[in-house]
Design brief:
By secondary structure, the protein is mostly helical. It has helices at residues 16-33, 35-53, 60-63, 65-73. The protein contains 4 helices and no strands.
Length: 74
Amino acid sequence: MKESPESTSPPKLTDFGSLWVQGLKIIVVIVVYMIIPGIFLGLTVASFIFTMRHFPIVPPHVMYSGFYWSFFGV
């Protein structure tokens, strides 16, 4: 359905194959769109874990890089 119906009764569902393909296209676009934010989120989490495991020997600019990646990625 591409536009709002003018009646109050629900539309008849026909051509299920076309509806399924449209839904699959939407899912593919969402997954592709989330690749870049997922990479940034992974870098943020990895930086945080690395900093927490090696806190005494990590320089300050590396310690705050997780905050940088979280703001840069979002």
